[in-house]
Amino acid sequence: MNSKTVIVGGGFAGRQACRALRKTDTEILLFDPRNTTVMLPALPDLAGGWLDERFLFQSLDTLLPPTVRHIRKTVTSIDLDTKTLTAGDETVAFDTLLIAAGSVTDFHGFDQHRDRMYHLDSLETARHIRDDFGSYLLQNTAPHVVMAGGGYTGLELAASLFYRAQASGKPCRVTVIDPGKEILPFLPEEKRSYIKRFLEGTGITVFPETRVTGFDGKNVTTGDQTFENVFFCWAGGSTFAVPEIKGCVERLRDGRLKVNPDLSLPNYPDVFAAGDSAAFEQNGQMLRKAINFAWYEGKCAGKNIARRLRGEQTKPFRPFDAGWVIPLHSDSVGQLFSRIWIRGKPGLRLHYFMCGFRNTCFANFAGFARIAAKLFKKEGPL
After folding, report:
1. d(Cα 9, Cα 34) in Å, to the nearest integer?
2. Is residue 212 domain-shared with residue 357, that is, in the same domain?
């Protein structure tokens, strides 16, 4: 071996890149502090206590090719000009690099009593919400969830917690606070209205054009209104997971790195990005963050790194949009192949089937397939 390839992140993109590189003559180092995978789209259901968490993860090392060395450290800085990265107290040089570190919760500078706020971006944070929300319901006669953020994650988590409380015999008020004029602004008005009617029918109240201005660890303030003794969750978006990138790069507001058609970074032909780390433009728009894109971007980036190592021409990434679903526990809205709208139980079944299909082993697939067939039992969470 006369070259070193470093992959930052062992998620969907990183693992597919490892598979694509497994037969190349290069040293492959994978940096990821965790030793397990996680099925991110199912985290709201786990946070609500509806899923057996065994279906959401598997040991990462059992999924990696034997040619990959997993280093359980967090990458805190990448210097593209010197071709080095920093992880813990170690500085590592690379010849080729794939940045597939995923994303983390973006608090937008709001740091008031963050230790008492709940956010959802990992298996650990989902467990934290599940366990603490159960205790909160037992201790409060008038429970109230306040959700900062009315995007995918915020609405899915709000619905999951609402139905968790209902199934526990403890009806819970749920308030969603969002700074935008409309929730889910990318949806056509008809579909957005459908979701609004669903939320109103369940009792989930949305406050648009509103921001959280204060949190004292127990009470949330929005302007001149205060919500007392709440279970406060932050779902205000996500941002790039690596704290520092040195070099001449273009980035989106959420930190994603703009890439060339072959997923390499402009000015850095030996550096690639995929998944939530990459900003890939198609037809004048940036691809949304999605597992399907991360999966195939990682595969394409891995193959292009292999081509670079062989001195061959790289190939462009050609995204295929299979669709998306917003699952709201008892209802859903989604779109298949950018043209077929789906909602209700068919959308829910498709969502959970895809969580199984993109999972890591047959046992996990079978678990989600059973959920897709039966959905959740009426008697309540696990």
Report:
1. 9
2. yes
What tens-digit pLDDT sequence spans the chain (382 residues)?
579 999 999 999 999 999 999 999 999 999 999 999 999 999 999 999 999 999 999 999 999 999 999 999 999 999 999 999 999 999 999 999 999 999 999 999 999 999 999 999 999 999 999 999 999 999 999 999 999 999 999 999 999 999 999 999 999 999 999 999 999 999 999 999 999 999 999 999 999 999 999 999 999 999 889 999 999 999 999 999 999 999 999 999 999 999 999 999 999 999 999 999 999 999 999 999 999 999 999 999 999 999 999 999 999 999 999 999 999 999 999 999 989 999 999 999 999 999 999 998 999 999 999 999 999 865 557 6
Give Cα separations from 320 to 35, 282, 352 (angstroms). 30, 11, 20
* 243 and 222 housed in the same domain: no
194-210 burial: b if 16+ Cβ within 10 Å, else e: bbeebbeebebebbeeb
Tally Cβ neighbours within 10 Å of residue 275: 29
Same domain as 229, residue 283: no
> ∠ CA(55), CA(59), CA(63), 5° rounding?
105
> The whole model's pTM is what?
0.94
Q: How many CA atoms lie within 13 A of 352 on its CB side?
A: 27
Contacts for 213-221: CB closer than 8 Å, 24+ residues apart? 214/112, 215/110, 215/112, 215/113, 215/116, 215/117, 216/112, 216/113, 217/113, 217/116, 218/116, 220/146, 220/177
Q: Same domain for 127 and 152?
A: yes
Number of domains in the chain: 2
The reply to whether 16 and 98 lie within a common domain is: yes
Domain that holds residue 138: 114-236+323-374
